[in-house]
Amino acid sequence: MRGAINEQIALLGILLAGLCIRLLYLYQAVDTPLLDVLLIDSEFYDRRAREIAAGDWLGERPFFMNAFYPYFLAILYVVGGTEFWMVGLVQSVMGVGACALLYGLGRRLWDSRVGLLAAGLGAVYAPHIFYDGALLTAAPITLMNIAALYCFARSTNGRRGWLWLGGMLLGLSATARPLALIYVGFLGCWYIVKMGWSGLSRWIGILLGCSLVVGLVILRNYAIGGEWGLTTSSAGMNFYVGNHPGANGIYSQVDFLNSAEPDLERAAFKLEAERRSGGPLGPGQVSHFWLREGLRFAVEQPWDYLRLLIRKGYLFCNGVEAQNNLSIYFAKDLIPLLRWCFVDWGLLAPLAAAGWIWLWRSRSTVLDLYVAAYFVGCLIFFVSSEYRLPVVPVICLYAARLIIAAISFLTAEKYRNFGKVMMLSLLLALPINYRDAGAKQLTLKRVDYYNFATLYQRQGDWLRAERLFRQALRIDSSFAPARSGLARALFEQGKPSENSMAYGEGRRGMTLFRNGEYEAAILAFKGVIAMNGPQPQILNNIGLCYYRLDRSNDAIDNYLHALQLDSLYVRPRYNLGLVYLRDGDESSAYLSFERVLQLDQDNHKARFQQGVTLARMDRVAEAEVHWNMLLARNPGNVRLRAKIDSVKAAL
After folding, report:
1. 121, 258: one domain
2. How many domains does one find in the chain?
3. Within a domain: residue 544?
4. Does residue 74 or residue 260 have the better pLDDT?
């Protein structure tokens, strides 16, 4: 009785300590970029959550990003407001809840000592603390997955309800990240091989629970988009990102992709797929196209693909935390607490691997399959710290088992066994903590500082933008985008420097352009390029000057150069269409305007010019569709109607 009370007191102390650590993290993060502005996926989730909270529950297209997290955020926004720290607070409680479930799982599979120590390791695990405070899916996924594992542990006495509940939790997890479905498949194979028909019956219970949740998402996607598919329409794109000739094992932008922001990413993949296939494609068709492209790489270049798989395996096991959105290394610069937390993958993974080997007779197959599923998932797609985080609870359990075994060897004076365990752990720690040049580069933070600087730049907070641009340049003084950003930040604040001179020269070029002094404007813009290197906006401006000077070939060259640097930049693509249309190349003009409309459906100028182009191609009925759409959206625009009537009269 006394032992049980002491155990509960110890657990309560661990959970309170874990909560206090997370609250301290949030306190230190509140006035930093981490909770002040939102980056990439977090910004998308926040924007979509606000739309859902405002009443747009279904949306207008099949899910491109995961279905779960925007709805999760929307509920929090409706109940508790839209402060980002409030989301971090809820997720911190969820993180502590995951530690409590970890205790229950360890206690049920082995004993209370394993459960308590594993819960303690999870409470102070640095990446876990970091992701609990981020507007990303990692915290809910980890909680749902460990809850599912706990349900499966409870089902050993034939309680099928636990299997059904565990399946539902994995289904919810799959709507946040579909890697959980791989685990469902692995469980089915294992249950059937081990138990035959009885195992099949158990797995069907899990499958039904999972399908109940995932099926709702599938039906919603079909109702909205008219195509059958799993949880999102981005699976094929993610597969291609992780499996193409330039892939390096982590998320890295392909050559035609200039932004990782979800909406721009979706548009770029769609545009490129349609360009390569030669026709319009729906969301599911785009996903299937990129899946085939990734598989083609694997089949046509098997040795390169094998090397890529080995690389992914190395990164999954390695101590480096490969960022997909936020970088923990960037956060450590801002949050002193993270620098104090020394429990990380590099410490726990060797202990866990040694425990898995040394105590092989009492392994848990359910846990082993779980780790294998996420390992295979990262091999299929790519490796990131966020994708790897859900396996950390299992790593904590196996590490806890080894630590307890090592302590028992010491207390029993079995020094030889203790030495063997420590030697095995050290030998495993060497490859896990070895960082080659590619892994070391993942710890650099120049892109993180640059990304957050651009967010402040959009808000007009030039001082903060300047500080972050400067920090990016301290890490890499040759980082051209940061130099360009710093130039504008300094110019906007009236601070003289060589960078601000380049920005000032660009402003002078715009003034000359507006005054009709196109030759002088070209010289000014070329001066900017000489100081800061080629930039899409400057090349587009030079193209405009050549267009006004009737030098079409020079204009086209500069527009194409701008598009090589940023394929999603709409202005040079639209201006390219104007050059083609003026020169009588209606087919090229049509393609240019069509691509503009694919990127920006509300671009009224491109829609009008597309109508003009179609009319010149004797496709008047199609031109009328575009013009009628414009008139419907602008019913009181007399000038627009006059322009359309003028074009019709000239036919």
Report:
1. no
2. 3
3. no
4. 74
Do 346 and 327 belong together in one domain?
yes
**Does one domain contain both 349 and 306?**
no
Rounding to the nearest 10 degrees, give the CA dihedral for residues 367, 370, 372, 373. Answer: 170
Q: Which residue range is the domain that position 484 belongs to?
A: 445-516
- Whole-model pTM: value is 0.78
Per residue in 217-273, pLDDT (tens digit) is 888 888 887 777 777 878 889 999 999 888 888 887 677 776 677 777 888 888 888
Examine the domain organization and report whether 339 and 391 are in the same domain.
yes
Contacts 24+ apart (CB under 8 A), 69-73: 69/45, 69/136, 69/137, 69/140, 69/176, 70/45, 72/140, 73/45, 73/46, 73/49, 73/135
Same domain, 384 and 456: no
Letter for the amino acid at 289?
Answer: F
* Residue 599 pLDDT: 74
Of 222, 175, 290, the closest CA to residue 62 belongs to 222
Here the tokens at position 461 are 């907070």
511-540 residue pLDDT tens? 888 888 898 888 888 888 877 778 788 889
Query: Does residue 545 sit within a domain?
Result: no
Same domain, 142 and 171: yes
| First CA to last CA distance, the chain | 95
Question: At which residue do the structure tokens 């086209």 appear?
Answer: 556
Domain boundary among 433, 463, 481: 433
What distances in angstroms separate CA 280 from CA 110, 175, 271, one per listed residue? 56, 28, 9
CA torsion sign, 485 to 486 to 489 to 490? negative
Answer for the pair 167, 208: CB distance below 8 angstroms, yes or no: yes
Q: Per mean pLDDT, which of 254-263, 320-329, 487-496 is the most reliable?
A: 320-329
